[in-house]
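Re: [ENG-882] Designed sequences occasionally contain unexpected residues at chain ends

Forwarding the minimal case from QA. C-alpha cells:
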C-alpha cells in the first residue's frame, strides 16, 4: 500500500492537515491569521474551523498546538479595540500627538474613524480604556484642541 501512496492517517488527521495548509495559505495571502468566523477560503469554511480551534483547544494534540503556535496563531481572538489602540500608540510615537482627522488612514487602517468613534462614545468606554487614551494625551475635543494650539493657549 505504501508503494501506491496510500495515506494511512485517520480522516480527522487528513482533514486537520488540509485546513492547516489552508490557514498557512490564508496567512501568506492576507499577512495575518485573523480569519473571520464565517470566512470561506478556497471553497472551505476556514472561519468555522479556526473558531473551533479556539473553542476546543483542549482537544488538540501537543503537536497540533505547536504547529499552530509556530505560525503565529493566537488562541485568544485579538480585541479590535486593543488592536486600534496599539495602532494609535504607534501613531503617537511617530508624530507625538493624537490629533487625527476623521478621514486619516494609517498603516492601512481607518485610524481617524476609530479615533472619532472613541470621542463620540466616551461615556461607553471602560475606565481602563479612557485611562489608556488619556496617557497618550488623547484629545477628546479635536476642534477645541486645534483652536487652542493655533492661538497659543
Amino acid at each position: 500500500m505504501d508503494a501506491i501512496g496510500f495515506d494511512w492517517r485517520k480522516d480527522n488527521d487528513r482533514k486537520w492537515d488540509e485546513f492547516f495548509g489552508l490557514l498557512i495559505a490564508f496567512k501568506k495571502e492576507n499577512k495575518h491569521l485573523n480569519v473571520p468566523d464565517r470566512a470561506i477560503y478556497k471553497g472551505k469554511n476556514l472561519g468555522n474551523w479556526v473558531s473551533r480551534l479556539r473553542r476546543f483547544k483542549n482537544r488538540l494534540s501537543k503537536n497540533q498546538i505547536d504547529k499552530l503556535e509556530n505560525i503565529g496563531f493566537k488562541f485568544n481572538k485579538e480585541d479590535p479595540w486593543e488592536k486600534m489602540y496599539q495602532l494609535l500608540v504607534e501613531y503617537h510615537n511617530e508624530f507625538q500627538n493624537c490629533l487625527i482627522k476623521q478621514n486619516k488612514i494609517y498603516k492601512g487602517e481607518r485610524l481617524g474613524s476609530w479615533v472619532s468613534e472613541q470621542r463620540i462614545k466616551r461615556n461607553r468606554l471602560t475606565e481602563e480604556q479612557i485611562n489608556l487614551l488619556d496617557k497618550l494625551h488623547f484629545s477628546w475635543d479635536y476642534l477645541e484642541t486645534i483652536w487652542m494650539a493655533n492661538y497659543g493657549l
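QA comment: On inspection the terminal residues look reasonable. The two ends are 83 Å apart (CA to CA). Proposing we downgrade this to a documentation issue.
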